Amino acid sequence: MGQVCLEREEEAACVIMCASVKYNIRGPALIPRMKSKHRIYYITLFSIVLLGLIATGMFQFWPHSIESSSDWSVEKRSVRDVPVVRLPADSPIPERGDLSCRMHTCFDVYRCGFNPKNKIKVYIYSLKKYVDDFGVPVSNTISREYNELLTAISDSDYYTDDISRACLFVPSIDVLNQNTLRIKETAQALAQLSRWDRGTNHLLFNMLPGGPPDYNTALDVPRDRALLAGGGFSTWTYRQGYDVSIPVYSPLSAEVDLPEKGPGPRRYFLLSSQMAVHPEYREDLEALQARHGEAVLVLDKCTNLSEGVLSVRRRCHKHQVFDYPQVLQEATFCVVLRGARLGQAVLSDVLRAGCVPVVIADSYVLPFSEVLDWKRASVVVPEEKMSEVYSILQSVPQRQIEEMQRQARWFWEAYFQSIKAIALATLQIINDRIYPYAALSYEEWNDPPTVKRGSVSNPLFLPLIPPQSQGFTAIVLTYDRVESLFRVITEVSKVPSLSKLLVVWNNQNKNPPEDSLWPKIRVPLKVVRTAENKLSNRFFPYDEIETEAVLAIDDDIIMLTSDELQFGYEVWREFPDRLVGYPGRLHLWDHEMNKWKYESEWTNEVSMVLTGAAFYHKYFNYLYTYKMPGDIKNWVDAHMNCEDIAMNFLVANVTGKAVIKVTPRKKFKCPECTAIDGLSLDQTHMVERSECINKFASVFGTMPLKVVEHRADPVLYKDDFPEKLKSFPNIGSL
Amino acid sequence: MQSWRGKSLWLALSASWLLVLLRVFPLLRLAVPARPWASAPQGWPHWLDTELLPSFSQPGELPEDAPQPPQAPRGGGCDWGACFDASKCRTGGLKVFVHPVAGPISAAHRKILASIESSRYHTASPEEACLLLFLSLEVPAGECSPVPQQWNGGRNHLVLDLHPAPCPQTFQLGRAMVAKASPTADTFRPGFDVALPLLPEAHPLRGGAPGQLRQHSPHPGVPLLALAEERGRWRTAGTDPSACPWDGRCEQDRGPEQTHPGGTLPNATFCLIPSHRPDALHFLQALQAGCIPVLLSPRWELPFSEVIDWTKAAIVADERLPFQVLAALQEMPLTRVLALRQQTQFLWDAYFSSVEKVMHTTLEIIQDRIFGASAHASLLWNSPPGALLALPTFSTSPSDFPFYHLQRGSRPVGRFSALIWVGAPGQPPLKLIQAVAGSQNCAQILVLWSSEKPPPSRWPETPVPLTVMDGQRKVSDRFFPHRAISTDAILSLDGHSSVTTSEVDFAFLVWQSFPERMVGFLTWNHFWDEAQGGWGYTAERANEFSMVLTSAAFYHRYYHTLFTHSLPKALRTLADEAPTCVDILMNFLVAAVTKLPPIKVPYGKQHLEATPPLVPGGPEPQPTARDCINQMAAGFGYMPLVSSRLRLDPVLFKDPVSVLRKKYRSLEKP
Fold it and tell me: Where is this protein localized, as stated in its record (chain A) (predicted)?
C-alpha cells in the first residue's frame, strides 16, 4: 500500500515539473546562444529534478518531525474548539432501552465478522459539541475521566479508525454522570450519530445513573439497543449477558498514594466510612458499635474542620479525626452501604485498602459480576439483616478472611484502579461474549498472580485408567545399529500389549534395511525416516501413533524382559499422566558449588527416569515438540544429550507430579555399550548431565522435578508365594 | 549582459520552482487518501487542555450521594435477597419439605421424589422446612396444577418444572423460585431460578452410566464434528470450510457423512447442537459421550450455570458466524481440546448421570446461596470430585481438602494422627502404641475405646500426646470426624493390628504423594461371581487388589467427614451390623470419590504369622459379608471399586546392595 502511494505521488510531481519545463523552453528569451545555454539548461533541469526528488524523499522518510509539526494544529487542539452541532428541537429521539435485549437479539455480530485474531474492533466517534436551538450546550463537552477512557480505548488493540470495519461503536458523548446532561437532547445527539442504527453495537459508559428523586439504577437517556456499561445496576435493570456492570471510579485512586498492606488481623473488625448514610441505617450501625465496642468503628462527616482541609479526605468519630482513605487499612471488614445509588465509589477505596467489603445493597449487581467471583472477595448481606452483620462476619474463618483481603486488593489492582483498567475490562468482557471459544478463563480473571504462579493445571486431570486393550506403541530411535535394533524389535514384540512398532530411522546417509530383512512380528511395524539426525525426533508426535501410551525405547535395550515391559505398561495405565520408566536418577543441590548436580548412584530417592525405555502419554510428544519452553529443544539437539532430562522436566512442570520408577532395574546394560562405562567418560558424562539440569532449571525459572522415595513393583514381588502364580514372575534384576 | 540576465533568470526560475514544489507537495499529500503512516497515530486526540477538563463528578457528589430511604422490593421481579427468607435456614440448616403430590405420577416423577427423600436435607414436616418443594405435574393442555396448601405466596418455594413447554398460564408464582429444564435465557432469573438439564424418562435414579470416555485424547481416527439431528440422533459431518454443516441451505455439499442410528452416543470430538433443534437431550448425550458440546445458540441457560463454569466443558458459539466457529474448532489447540473433553466427563459424572445427582445438585445450589461467604468455592464445583463430594461444612479453604493441592500449589500439612480403635477384647495395644509413637511423623495418638471393659487408667509414656476417647459401641464410630484429630493424615489402626515404625514411616511418605487415596498394608480384592450372580471379595493374596483394610491404613481426615455426613444412613447402619462391612464401605466411599484404586505398601511377613485372623471369619468371608458388598453396590448404584496391580516399595527394596545404603532396611527383615 505504502509503495503504491509513493510511486503515484512521484509521478504526479513529475508531470507538473515537465509541463512547466516545456513552457520555459518555448520562452522567447532563451532562443539565442542555444549551444552553451543548452548545457546549463540541462544541468539546471537535472538539478531541479534532483532537488524535487530529494524534497519528495524528505517528505516521505522524514515523517514524524515534519508530520507532527504540520499536524500539530489537528492533533493538539483544545476541547473548546471542537465543531459545534446544532440539534433541532424536533430531531428524532431513540426509543427507551429495550429490557429484553440480549446479544443474540439486539447485537449485530456480522459487523464483527472481519476481525482477525478473535478481537473486536472499536470505533470512537470524533468529539463534537452539541447545542440546542438556542445555542445552549446539551452537556459538558467531555469530562476528564471520559477523555481518559476514550484515550485508553484508542491506545488499545481494540481500536480502529475505520468505521466500516468496526464491530463496536463508542460515542464521544459523555454520559458518565447523568446529572451533568440534558436527557432528551443527549438522546437526540446519540440518534444523529452516523452509524447509530437504533443503537445497534453502540456502547455507552455511565457511572452515575439516575437522578432525584427516585434515582433509577440505569441511565435514563433513551438509548434503544445500545449496550450500557453502567455503575450501579440493579437486577431489575441489568440485562444479563448484554449490559456490563462496571465500578464507580473513585478519583482518590489517582490522588492518594496508598501502599499495599498485607493481609492479617487489623485494629477494627468492622468499619463504616461513608458520610451520607440514611439515618435508619446509621442507627443500625451505631447500635452495632454500642454492642461490640472497640471492634466496630462508625465514621461520619467532620463538622468542625478548619478551613482549607479537604473534607473528602477526613472522617470523624465524635471528636477523633481520621484520614481517609488511610483509615480503611485499619479494618478487616468495611461496610459498603447503598446510598441513593446502588453503586458507590467507596467500594473501590475499600478494595484498595485490602479491606473486605461488606456489601449491603439489595439487588445490586456487583461490578464485572459476569466474570469476577465476588464470593472470594466480599460478603453480601441483605439490608434487612443489617443488625446481624457482626455475627455473620464472625463466622468467617481467619484463613478465609486473609484470602479475601488478598483477593480484594487484587481486584482493585486489576480492574478498579484506573479508568483504563475499567475500560479494558469492559471491552474484554464484550470480546469474550462474541468469541466465547477464545474467552479468558475463570482463573485468568480471578486468580491473583501469586496463585497463578504456584498452581499447576494438570492437562490429564481426569482420573481415568485407560483400557488395557488399547495397548501401546513402541518407538525405537535408531541410527545404524541394525543387529541390535532387530534384537530389540524381537524382544519388544513379545510383550502382549504391544499394538504397533515404530522405528525412527535417524540416519540420513544410509537407507534402512530392505523389508525382507526385518524380523517378522505379529504387530504392524512402520519405519519413519527423518530429515535430520536429531535427538528430538524420538519425541515427535508422529501420525502413526494411534495409542495413547508410548514406549520410547533405545535400539540397544535388549535386557528388559517381556514381563518387565508389560508390567511397566500396567503401571502406566494406573498413572497415565506420568513418566513411567526403569532406571531412576536423582537431582541434588550441591551446596559447595551452589548449583544442581546429577546423581546416578544408589539412592533412596528418585526424581527422574531415563527415557531409554519409558512409557508416557503421547500428548507429551506434542508438548515436547511444540511447547517446550525457551531454547531447550535446540540445546538438546546441539549437544546430542539430555533429551530425557528435558522430557522429565517438561512432564513434571506441566503435571506437578513425580515420575514412577518401576522394578529394581538400575542400568541399561548391554554388550555394545560397555565401552562407555569407562570411568573418565562416565565423569564427563555426569558433568554434562549436571549442566543440563542447571540449564533447564534456569529456563523453566524453577525446579519442577519432584523427589519421591517409592517405586512400583508387582503386588507379589519377592513375596513368599509360588512364582508360577504371580502375574509378573520374570522381573529382572538390576 | 545576456549571460548575467540568463543566469539571474535561471536562478529566479529555479528558486520559484523550489517554491512551487514545496507548496504543491502538501496539497498533493492531501489529495492522496489514507496513507498508512498518517492513519496510525490518528485516534482519540490528545487535547491541549486535558488537565483543565472537569471531573465527571462534583466533589460532594462522590463518594457519597444524597441519602435515600430504604426501598421495599418492587413487585413483579424477584431476586434472592428480596424474595427468599433465609433466616429460617440459617438457624436450622436447609430443610426441604416436598408438597404431597395429588393424583397419579409418572416414573420420572417418582424418581425425583425418591431422590429428594434420600437427601440429607429432607424433612417430613412443613413447619421445620425452610424450603418447600412443589413438583409441577404434566397436566392436559390449558389446565394448570392447583395451588398447594401452605403456598404462602410462593415464599421459600421451589417449583420443579420438568417440561420444556410449561403450562401457559402457570398459577401465580408469586415469590417462588423455578427450577426448570433448559429454560430460555430471556425468562431465567439468574441467582434465583435454577436451570436443570432435560432428563430422559429412563434416567437412572442413582449411580448412573459412567462417562463414555476411555482415553484422555481423541483417537486419531475419530471425526471432528457430529451434528445433532431429530429424535436424539447424530450425524458425523465433514469439516469443509465452505459448507455450513448446520444450515439447510448447503445440504448438498455435505461430504462423506453417515447417520448413526437413534440411541447411540456420538463418536466425535465436537458435537454441534444447532438452535433450531432445541432438543436438550442432545446436550446430555454429548456430555456423556465426551464429545465437546458446541451450542450454536446462546438462547438457553445451561444447566446449573450458576455454579458450573461451562466455558471449561462446552463451547457456546454464535451460529451467525459459521466460518469463524468452524475455523475456531479446527484450529483449537490440542491442550484445550483435551481439557474440554475431560471436563465433560467430570461434569457428567459429578452432576448429571443420575436423577439423584441432579436433584442433590439443585439443593446444594440453594444451600450455597444460604451459606453466602462460606459456600463452595468455584474451584470445588468445577474440578474433581465435584461439589457434592466436597462438603463446605468441612472447610471453606480448598487447601484443607485432599483434592486441590496441585491447583493451589499447596501440600498436605503436618504429620499424622494415629487413631487406634479398641474393640471387643479390650486389651490396651501397648506394643502398637510404642511402634507408632516411635515414628518421627506421628503428631498424636488417639485411642478410641469402644470395648465394654473400662479402659485402663495407666497408659505408657509416649513422646507424643496420647488421648483416650470413650467411643460409642458402634463400628462406624471409628470414622467419625472427632474434633481431637488435628492433622490432615490419619493412620487408622485396630487394637490388634501390628505394624513397625519403619512401615509406618514409609507408608506416610507415600501417602503424602497421594493424599486423596487410601494407603494401606493389607488388601482385599473384589470380583464378579458368575456362579452366585453377584459381587464377591477375597482376602487371599493375589496379583491385584481393590481394597485396603482400615485396620492399618493412612487416609485424609476429610473422609471421616464424608463418611459421617454424606453417606446414606442405611449404608452406615448396615456397616454397624457387620463389622467387615465398614472396611468395604470406606473403600467404596474413597473409590467413588477418587475413581482410583487404593495404594498398597510393603507389609512384613512376621505380622501375618503373629496375628493370623485379621479378617473375621478367616480368608473366606462369611455369607453376611458377601451380602454386604452386594448391598453396598446396590446402595451406590454401581461398583466403584477399581483394581490395582502394583505395590509401592522403597526405591532400593530388596535390591542386592549393601543394607547400609537403604533407608528402610527393616522393611526387608524376613
Answer: Endoplasmic reticulum membrane
